[in-house]
Amino acid sequence: MAVTERPGAPPEAPPTFRDGVRAGVPFAIAGGLVSITFGVLADSAGLSPLATIVMSAIVYAGSAQFTAVAIVAGGGGVGAALAAAALMNSRFLAMGAALGPSLPGNALKRAAQGQTVVDASWVLASRGDGTFDRNLLFGSSAIQYVTWVSGTTIGALAGDVLGDPEKLGLDAAYPAFFLALLISEARGGRRLGVAALGAAIALVLVPVAPAGVPVLVASLAALAGLTRKARAEARAKSESA
Fold first, then answer.
1. How far apart are CA 204 and CA 126, in angstroms?
2. What is the pTM of this model?
3. Which of 81, 172, 211, 240 is deepest in the core (most CB within 10 A)?
4. Is 209 left (phi over 0), alpha (psi -120 to 50) or beta?
5. Each residue of 82-98: pLDDT tens digit?
6. How far apart are CA 179 and CA 118, in angstroms?
7. Which residues are 132's β-sheet partners?
8. Half-sphere exposure of residue 2, counting CA atoms within 13 Å on the CB side?
9. Which neighbouring-strand residues pair with 126?
């Protein structure tokens, strides 16, 4: 979705909000299936339909929500669930640091715009040079938000009817969702090494580190790798100019 120019051809128009919505549709469909699973699991864990739906509407973060519900279902307290969910979402610190310079306004306005970030929208909005497109970010996040809350509502209200998510194959939607993100992020091979590094770090840490730590460390390592790559490319361009 990045804007490119071809020799002798007029520059392409920048992406619009509608372009972002269209780009986010495949991930919105996958996210909707995942959120149905979340609604069913939250219902089986004892959360009321209203609490489950409000959680999705406010938190809007699948991994954090699944983690919190799993802890509550296992007999853990609210404090432990909140702490684990916050740790799972800590990857957004690195993502926000990369996104911030591409957003207009003061720090408060940039922070408000950053609330729209989810994994897929962050990837889709990336231009590949360390900058991000706001329209792609907002559009892709908007359609995913709609299906996430809608799917949660279906799962929370019809959990007894749907039964075990594994029997429906909905449990496969979650890993498939992130696999699609990995493929999209590594498109063209330009960032394949960085993506592979992050995946390797996460795989090594998963068996030994608390939930959330592998994701955070992998995100920070990937951010550092992308930052160095962007600086090297900018330096190469300035030297060739």
1. 27
2. 0.68
3. 81
4. beta
5. 877 787 787 788 888 88
6. 15
7. 126
8. 15
9. 132
